[in-house]
Amino acid sequence: MAEPLQTAAALRAALDAGRESAVGLVDAARARADAVDPALRALLHPRWDAAREEAAASDRRRAAGEVASKLDGIPIVVKDNIVQCDEPATCASRILEGYRSPFSATAIERLRAAGAPIVARSNMDEFAMGSSTENSAFGPTRNPWNPECVPGGSSGGSAAAVAADIVPLALGSDTGGSIRQPAAFCGVVGMKPTYGRVSRWGLVAFASSLDQIGPIARTAEDAAWLLDAISGHDPRDSTSLPEPPLETTNALGTDVAGLTIGVPQEVSSLGGLAAGVRDRVAEAVAVFEAAGARTCPVSLPHTRYGIAAYYLVCTAEASSNLARFDGVRYGHRTEGPEGGITAMYEYTRARGFGDEVKRRILLGTYALSAGYYEAYYRKAQQVRTLLRGDFERAFAQCDVIAMPSVPEAAFRIGEKSEDPLSMYLADVFTVSANLVGAPGISVPCGFDGRLPVGLQLVGPALADARVLRAAHAYQQMTDHHEQRPPL
Amino acid sequence: MSQPAPPAYETEHEVVIGLEVHCHLRTRSKLFSSAAVSYGDAPNQHVTEVCLALPGALPVLNGRAVELAIRAGLALNCKVHPTSVFARKNYFYPDLPKGYQISQFEEPLCTEGFLDIDVAGGTRRIGITRIHMEEDAGKSIHDGAATTLVDLNRSGVPLVEIVSEPDLRSAEEVGVYLRTLRQILRYVGASDADMEKGQLRCDANVSLRRPGEDRLGTRREIKNLNSFRNAEAAVRTEIENQAERLGAGGRVVQATVGYEADAGRIFVMRTKENADDYRYFPDPDLIPLTVPESRIDEIRKALPELPGVRCRRFVETLGLKDEDARVLTASRELADWFEAAAAAHGSAQTVASWTRRDVLGALNDRDVEIDAVALAPAAFAALVKMTDEGRVTPRNARDLLGEILFEGGDPEALVRERGLEAVSDAGELEALVDAAIATNPRAVASYASGDKKSLNFLMGQVMKQTQGKADPGSVREILARKLGG
């Protein structure tokens, strides 16, 4: 190993010991971004000067003995669909080019209260619709492990920025795997918390009943720090859980004796599981067993309907959530040649949205239409109920479920962009957690060839701490997360 | 007075009307945002990121609006459901910032109520199908040129939509229903229901069928009726139009229509062929609205006495005439004021007569409501009492009331201060009558020659001497006796 892993925990120790300053960390992030990001394109709208000022304020706090939190002075990037006051928030879409938000997301407010300098926004699939970050209106992000490959998505910019050592922490959002899948592709940790754990106030909605903001980091411990800082009830989000902020950090341990890990029987039969992925996940389960954990087979029979249900629910909600981008009040506007409001809507949305967004708006509009609602949207909601039952039964037998995050390692840029369906099917292991609201984490568990593989651990709703503890224990027994991309 | 013959269409067809009434709830802030509810302000003054549908903004339900909607539901005898669901009604329009309206669809807050209305020939019970909560849209202002301006002050204002069964049978019943509905909504404090401010708007579904037919005829919906007068006139015009068409052997085509009040004309907005598909689905930004039964009971217990019940009580317990009771229960504030005065006085019917003639008369002259009255009900009662006892003449009492009704004051003290106490001492009156007879020999003579009107002239002389304080009955009696009439 050339240098020690620069985790948030390590950086904080350096700050506390006076070996490092918050300003120094922002400068280092900038230097690293200057070196690697022209090729990767993980970042949008860097705000180095503002972040440097925030870092200077952090240094003054530390000097005065008034450190705001564990994250005080630790630089972070934020996905471009989480709004920050006076900053751009494009969701990587032309339709929001030039838009600046007049208010901040709750997660942003909490990060600022914690003292973390926000250095940039990160690239993503447009409106979080995609699994490759190829659907960004501002160009794709590349995978730090192989620039010919996608970093995953939709939080590809966040995962790549952490994997490329630009920052130790990033916020992403996960609607059907958009944190866990890029974390797996980039060899970092990414967690989707329990639905309602993190406020959605200020998260530009893709599919409201599935969306959740979550942390991306190199270690489960760092992810826990970040999740603790942004979680907790928010009266501005009606779907926010009536729970106080998490305090998982102190509960992290190494002991897995007494932990029961459920292994779903259906995994091997579900679409195109690569041998390399299957083997790495099996080895990860064996690591737990060797450390004293018990394993048991569990059954999630309705996961085979998960993809269909997911793509009905998310497109239906998206078709409505994206109606506000109409060119009337903000963002992009194109008038029709003959004038008129209808033509303005049509031209604005035709030019403002990319193909994948249009595809999903069309699918969702269709699914909600009179005569189709019962067959599609309502049926999909029924599948969610059945899936919830599957998970309840499984969690009566085990503490966490272990399965792959993604059926295969990162694919090549352009490889699937002509085949949206195969891209959708690759979400098979991640969408269930969104559909049932459960917490899930992806942890690096080795490589398939030269590309990282992710182990997914899913817990019952509200068991965010349990999931983080299991992931942390696993990282204490393995060093996959210490492997660095060849940049 | 004989009833005019009913119009021909009422004998050939049965008229079937159902109303959808949109009514703003009386809250300080909007249904899903903290922006103020305010009328008549400069455009776009009362908007937050939620009203503007900025990216990332989320709705949070106003609990006060829910309480007011439940009050309305209970007052209209509805089932109030402990669980109801907000749904999105999707359509594009410039004054609808989110591209959808948050409403209730499959699971509304209230269902299965009724409203009794008094019509010629008795009481009619009009079914209420449902009451659901929703947010209002903004306003589009078409300023002549090709430009449309949008004002979002109204965007998100909480309202209830009250849907009636197709139980109304005439334009007149539509008017009575709307007035009764408004009265009840105001009584329970759910809404100010001021039509001029757009707080109460109505859509009317009108169809005709052969008398005795069970199946409903094809209906047309008249949108956005914004006054009682327009509602009645539009419905009457639509009935005539449909009757004429059916009478000529034609058929009614289902359509949404508007009413041009100035021209008295109905125009077609759209037909069923291009009806909208609103793609309703439960709003995933909001959890189902749950109200515990215990809370619904609390709201039920805190409801004020409703106008119908109060009117009956005024007749049965206070002994008022039907018409007086109806007029005095028109608004809760008037009924409260009257009832307090009646209690302080003791005779409700006496106070009722005074209130109707002298208080409501004055309100009418000024075109104001009872809340403009500053005089305390007890002070009003005291003045009426002084008149009953002959301590002040009715004329002087009325003049004094005119002065203090809107300013307030203590009638006892004012009567004393101004020396308005009536002269009723028999000796004093006799002397005054003697003086009048002595100084007006011509009047006395003409009375003697049979001109009985001269008595009034002599009475006037006595009243003038006492500045109107003499008790007119006593004066007349003494005069008649002395003139030997």
Question: Main traits of this protein?
Answer:
heterodimer, A: alpha/beta, globular, B: 485 residues, alpha+beta, 9-stranded mixed beta sheet, 16 helices, 39% helix
Explained architecture:
The complex is a heterodimer of chains A (487) and B (485). Helix content of chain A is 38%, strand content 12%. Chain A has a domain at 8-253: Alpha-Beta Complex (Amidase signature (AS) enzymes). Chain A is built from 15 helices and 11 strands. With 485 residues, chain B is an alpha+beta fold. Chain B folds into 3 domains: 8-275, no CATH class; 313-407, no CATH class; 426-482, Arc Repressor Mutant, subunit A (Orthogonal Bundle), CATH 1.10.10. Helices cover 39% and strands 20% of the residues of chain B. Chain B is built from 16 helices and 16 strands. Chain B has helices at residues 8-12, 63-75, 171-187, 228-247, 293-301, 307-316, 322-328, 332-345, 348-366, 377-388, 394-404, 411-418, 426-439, 441-448, 454-465, 472-482, and strands at 14-24, 79-80, 83-84, 86-90, 100-104, 110-119, 122-135, 139-142, 148-151, 158-164, 200-209, 220-225, 255-260, 265-271, 281-282, 289-290. In chain B, α8 packs across α9 (348-366) and α13 packs across α16 (472-482). The A-B interface holds A 82-83, 89, 91, 96, 99, 101-103, 105, 200-205, 207-209, 235-239, 316-317, 319-320, 322-324, 326, 328-330, 339, 341-342, 345, 365, 368-370, 373, 377 and B 49, 52-61, 88, 90, 92, 94, 97-100, 146, 148, 150, 277, 279-281, 283-287.
Give me the count of strands of chain B: 16
Main pleated sheet of chain A: 11 strands, mixed
- pLDDT under 50 segments of chain B (min length 5)? none
Instruction: Please state roughly what percent of the residues of chain B sit in beta strands, choosing from under 5%, 5-15%, 15-25%, 25-35%, 35-45% or over 45%.
Output: 15-25%
So, the CATH homologous superfamily of the domain at 8-253 in chain A? Answer: Amidase signature (AS) domain
